[in-house]
Amino acid sequence: MATTEDYTTWTSESLISRIHALESALGPTQVPTTAASPAPGKFKKPPKAPKPFNASRYSTRLIALKFAYLGGAYNGFEHHANNSTPLPTVEEVLWRALRKVRLIFPEFPEGKTAGHGRDEQEEVCWEGVEYSKCGRTDKGVSAFGQVVGLRVRSARPLAQAKVLASTGADEKDLKEMQDEAAMDDVPPDDSTSKELPFDMVKDELPYIQLLNRVLPSDIRILAWCPNLPPNFSARFNCRERRYRYFFTNPAFAPLPGNEAQQGSGWLDIEAMQSAAKKYEGLHDFRNFCKIDASKQIENFERRIFNAGIHRVEAEDQPASLVGVGAEANGGLGEQLSTSIPQLHWFEVRGSAFLWHQVRHLMAVLFLVGQGWEQPELVDQLLDVSTTPGRPVYDMASDVPLVLWDCIFPDPERVRQADHAGDGEVSHAGGYEDGLDWIYVGDSEGGQDRAKKNPPGVEDGKYGRGGVMDDLWVLWRQRKMEEILAGSLMNVVRRQGKPSRLCDVDFALKSDRVYDGSELPRTVGTYNYVMQRERMESPDIVNARYAARKGLQYPRPRAAATDDTGN
């Protein structure tokens, strides 16, 4: 039996010599690798490089997209090149989704290479896409009816698209050509005979579903428009924009026993409604916006079609979306509409808006609703002859603001209404949308025909993977947070002895001003708006900027510029 060497007594030199001797005896050996060998059946092929996408093999068409987004997770809508932001912009996220599903083929500047939509570092570029956008929302602001126009890939056969381009015909003309050929019993041209049966809506790509699959759940495509007017621009063809600003009454937790005091948290809705109606009509809103000298805007007149305060009723609650209204649930709707705190919204409809105009309009309404100001403050701020510069006041918070809808009326309707001057002919209530929108779930053009689902199971709006499921998840998460926070407030309210704050002299307390945020601001003693320091008039601000930049001021006569940033 072999004996085991006791190496503990060996010196270092002896041990090294022993190792060399053993290595020589064994011969050359292969050093084992540290990487674990793949388990049987678990071998993974290396990912293949994406195949180059030949855009020239596909036809394109100009469409409009209507979509919604919750703005809390985004740094506003508009993307600015070479301007990094802490949060992504909605426009950038939309662009990357369009590139990922290969719907757009931008013409990148020389030296910039396309990443086929797979490269997250690919710079946003709209060149060659005929892109236009309706409105720009600021950081935190949401939109439920934002619209963009752009040229996208189509399922229409390329030969047919070339025929349309060469003849100057549109989709409607194509169908008429097909019908006439059938009626006259004339065989169609060989180059188009195979493509004529293509339906421009039924046989088109499912644009809504393609994009919603790759977009985050807080951005949803709602509709697309296949037939646009000639030279369509989402910005200039839009003749009315509608904004809503949501708030509660009370606006914040009121102190017990002080409900009738100014700044207690309770809002006078009737006073706010009276002030809101004063916004309607054609006015100079220089005192209800933020001045951007770089734009050199000289005309601050804007027409407001309608403005008012509305209460959120039962049919506006999410319960009504699933058929749980007053009729379906034995009076639940009435309970929803009369619950405390009450929910309200301020709606304003206009042709165009100045920078931060809606948030300034709302800020003044909050001051009136809290009793700090009277509705006549609106008249004073609109009178630019006596108030050429805006008094210093803070605009309302951005979070509760929503770009509710963008309206594209029929051109004939626009010609019949006078919105440019103060003539007797005026469409005070606003316009009706004239675009032929195809909404998600519509039987023609609103569903993914490639999905073989039996009728009644899902349609892209309801059912598995539908938009309503996505939005329900977002709503329910926030609803659970609301219920938990509300229940906690009730627990704290019932604990301990009754509060004695109602016995404290209100004159000793600091005034509180609400601006739409979670909590009011303490301001010491409230100072009336018309008694505050005035800012410089827009003329002075513009002239100083023009002199610094070497620009001519005033500029040659030009059309008023809408900023539509709120």
From TrEMBL:
Record domain Pseudouridine synthase I TruA alpha/beta: where: 275-409
Any GO CC annotation of this UniProt entry: nucleus
Residues covered by region (Disordered): 27-50
Keywords: Isomerase, tRNA processing
Transmembrane region(s): none
PANTHER family: PSEUDOURIDYLATE SYNTHASE (PTHR11142), TRNA PSEUDOURIDINE(38_39) SYNTHASE (PTHR11142:SF5)
Protein name as it appears in the record: Pseudouridine synthase I TruA alpha/beta domain-containing protein
Organism encoding this protein: Cryoendolithus antarcticus
